[in-house]
Write a structure and sequence with these properties.
The complex is a heterodimer of chains A (about 280) and B (about 425).
Chain A (H helix, E strand, L loop, with lengths): L4 E5 L10 E6 L2 H9 L6 E6 L10 H4 L6 E4 L3 H4 L15 E6 L4 H10 L3 E5 L5 H16 L7 E2 L1 H10 L6 H4 L7 E4 L5 E2 L9 H13 L14 H4 L13 H25 L8
Parallel strand pairs in A: 1-2, 1-8, 2-3, 3-4, 4-5, 5-6, 6-7
Antiparallel strand pairs in A: 8-9
Helix pairs in contact in A: 4-5, 5-10, 6-10
Chain B lengths: L4 E6 L23 H17 L4 E6 L9 H17 L3 E6 L11 H8 L2 E5 L14 H17 L3 E7 L2 H18 L4 E5 L9 H4 L5 H19 L5 E3 L1 H8 L18 E4 L4 E3 L2 H6 L6 E2 L6 H6 L2 H13 L10 H4 L4 H8 L9 H21 L3 H8 E2 L14 H7 L2 E2 L1 H7 L1
Parallel strand pairs in B: 1-2, 1-8, 2-3, 4-5, 5-6, 6-7
Antiparallel strand pairs in B: 8-9, 9-10, 11-12
Helix pairs in contact in B: 1-2, 5-7, 7-14, 8-14
The chains are: A alpha/beta (about 280), B alpha/beta (about 425).
């Protein structure tokens, strides 16, 4: 099996058997119908792309299958209270909420975390106002004891700083690395993610590959950026003139928090008895 | 509708044998027959099948549950057990009683059906619990005698106590001493009052000031930490909040669930279904329907506009100010029945919001202090690595970032800070 994961509409589920897939639909009924009749071995998760479900007795709630579910929020500031309708899913499924970084998205993150959901930020190229909201979310993630679930991309980034290990960069974390992910449109066309639109796949691979190594960006602020390995130039797409100052502030805070934790662990190791094995 | 566990607050009788002034239930003479009980049980089991639910807990109360004959319970236990076994379901039973009618004849069924435990209620000082003839002192005397007898018979007695204005005057130390030192109770819980059901002078004067109540709960927390915690005394919700803020498993009361409509329903002796015991006995406008008149429980629930109001409540009120609250994850706007009986709408947050926030803040601080005082290797590791309330997916061995939200533990810097 190749390493590519295909994000497919539910009605194409049968034709992608044998390949790794993420199966999406804006209807929970449709997800349950298609997924119930196929082999789930290669299904990474089901993706529900609309928050408009029945208030109660949703088919996913009574579906006796533990498949992870990703719920996509489109308009976080207005739609976020609807997340309450998904809290029942947690007893049967791991649930992640994908939230676009748009004005007021912090409310959606707050509620998602309060309900015990994992969160993935669909981040794009945030302006200063959005960076401020992201900083608020970072505070929640790092400091609030009530938060018990990961917030991506912060979580993977934090772990890579903490472990000092080379880990997948943001293209991969955000499920947009063309080497590993494809987005199949409702009409069956193959791309990488909706935000790349119609761009040719081969060209995109070249662009992303170059950005990840920094070679294409040698004359931009990625040149010599201490976070290039983690970021892979992710924030320079689609506008390469995007100013990363705010983003780098967030990276710095994650790096600092990882360092604080490492230092604290070291200081505990010096105590009699040291750390537990 | 509900999770893999269905909870039902079950009132097979609406009769009561006492005359408490602040009771939120409007009593009737109705009792459920054994055949009606079987019919209800079958519909609950059908609902569980439809919803892939394996476990049912019936919380038996009334009215007053001990106005039903012991023999009725013996047959009820047998019938429910047989019906559940045939459907491969598990049913557990809990008992909430005022203990006024308790005699040793109850001991066997309490042991066999209710795990040798009863829940009962008493306030300190007792202002409002009364017999039909006689005052609070008579009630308290009979109650004390009966719980003593039950405990001597080996029955575990848990107590729910509702704070009143005199509770606040005598203070936390005296309150704690009454239950633990004087009565030997080691498992009790403090609730806040609300004026449910038909109004009277007592209920009009029932609401307590948040500030005074907050001080009482904070003091009670400190008393429990000093005296109860080392002795293993359970004092809800304080002990559960401390456990929660310590990263330990905890069981918080229904008022602080993300939506009580996801957690349980109540069914009374007439077959009416509603959100909880207060609603099902006192607020016909909020009945979801009658289980005897509907073919299925799922159909009843799905078509109930009253139920939809409960389901929609947290989403409807969260944007007012709960979304900015640091303790949103613990409370979600609080209790619908307290809100309705004190503010006459469902679409407000719980009137005891200030108390809750004060108690959350205080117990969070206390938990941090306790953690700091007992840092050892085990505690440190527990504090550092938190696995996310068991919601990780253990079946997928993918190591990709895609799978990370299913499998990665969350490093909690907040907990580390609490230790420093």
């Amino acid at each position: 099996m190749n390493s590519v994961t295909y994000n497919i509409p539910a009605h194409l589920f049968d034709s992608y058997q044998g390949r790794k897939v993420i199966v999406r639909s804006d209807s929970s009924d449709e997800l349950v119908i298609y997924l119930s009749r196929g082999n789930l071995e290669n299904v990474l998760y089901a993706q529900l792309t609309s928050l408009k479900v029945e208030l109660d007795l949703d088919p996913l709630v009574s579906w006796a299958c533990a498949l992870p579910i990703d719920v996509v929020v489109r308009n976080p500031a207005a739609e976020y209270p609807l997340l309450y309708h998904f809290s029942k899913l947690l007893d049967r499924h791991p649930v992640r909420i994908s939230i676009p970084v748009k004005r007021g998205f912090v409310k959606a993150v707050r509620l998602a975390l309060a309900l015990g959901f994992s969160v993935k930020l669909e981040v794009g190229q945030p302006d200063a106002c959005l960076i401020a909201e992201m900083a608020e979310v970072l505070d929640l993630y790092l400091r609030r004891s009530e938060v018990s679930q990961p917030v991506e991309y912060f979580h993977s980034t934090f772990l890579s700083f903490f472990n000092h290990q080379q880990s997948p960069n943001l293209w991969f974390v955000q499920e947009e690395d063309p080497e590993h992910f494809r987005f199949i449109t409702n009409e069956g066309a193959e791309t990488v993610s909706p935000r790349f639109g119609e761009i040719d796949l081969r060209e995109l691979k070249l662009i992303v590959g170059a950005q990840q190594t920094g070679s294409r960006l040698s004359k931009t602020e990625c040149d010599g950026c201490e976070f290039l390995e983690t970021c892979g130039g992710y924030f320079k797409w689609p506008n390469q003139e995007f100013d990363c100052e705010g983003i780098k502030t967030l990276f710095s805070r994650l790096n600092l928090a990882a360092e604080e934790l490492r230092n604290d662990l070291a200081s505990f190791q010096e105590l009699p008895g040291g750390l537990p094995a | 509708m509900m999770r893999n566990h269905l909870s039902v607050i079950f009132l097979p009788t609406n009769r009561c044998n006492v005359n408490c002034e602040y009771c939120f239930e409007n009593k009737t003479a109705d009792r459920m027959s054994l055949d009606q009980l079987s019919a209800v049980t079958v519909k609950l089991l059908d609902f569980m099948d439809e919803s892939s639910i394996s476990f049912l807990t019936l919380h038996w109360q009334g009215g007053e549950i001990m106005t039903m004959p012991v023999e009725w319970f013996e047959q009820a236990h047998e019938r429910i057990g047989a019906l559940a076994q045939a459907r491969n379901k598990r049913v557990d039973h809990g008992l909430q009683t005022n203990m006024i009618a308790y005699t040793p004849r109850w001991n066997r069924i309490v042991k066999e059906m209710f795990g040798n435990s009863v829940g009962t209620s008493m306030d300190y000082p007792n202002l409002y619990r009364k017999m039909f003839r006689g005052g609070p002192d008579d009630y308290t005397r009979i109650w004390k005698r009966n719980i003593q007898a039950a405990r001597e018979a080996g029955i575990n007695v848990g107590v729910i106590s509702v704070a009143n204005r005199e509770t606040l005057k005598v203070g936390a130390e005296s309150f704690y001493s009454f239950f633990v030192d004087e009565l030997g109770i080691t498992d009790f819980q403090v609730n806040t009052p609300f004026p449910g059901g038909e109004q009277n002078d007592t209920k009009r004067d029932l609401e307590l000031e948040n500030e005074e109540l907050s001080q009482f709960f904070r003091d009670l927390t400190d008393v429990w930490v000093e005296r109860g915690l080392p002795e293993g005394v359970k004092l809800g919700p304080i002990d559960q909040l401390i456990a929660h803020f310590s990263g330990e498993p905890s069981c918080l009361p229904c008022i602080w669930q993300s939506n009580c409509a996801d957690e349980f329903i109540s069914i009374d002796a007439r077959g009416f279904v509603a959100q909880c015991d207060c609603w099902v006995t006192s607020y016909p406008d909020y009945f979801f329907g009658n289980i005897f008149e509907h073919e299925t429980l799922s159909g009843l629930l799905k078509n109930s506009t009253a139920r939809q109001e409960f389901v929609a409540r947290p989403a409807a009120i969260v944007d007012k100010d709960c979304i900015e609250c640091d303790y949103l994850s613990l409370c979600h706007g609080g209790c619908p029945v307290r809100t309705y009986t004190m503010r006459h709408t469902l679409l407000e947050k719980d009137p005891y919001c200030q108390l809750y926030k004060s108690l959350f803040r205080h117990t969070e601080t206390v938990a941090a202090r306790l953690a700091g005082a007992r840092v050892d290797r085990t505690d440190f590791r527990k504090a550092l690595i938190h696995t996310g309330k068991g919601k990780s997916c253990g079946t997928n061995s993918q190591t990709t970032a895609v799978a990370a939200w299913q499998t990665q533990p969350l490093v909690q810097l907040g907990r580390r800070k609490a230790l420093s």
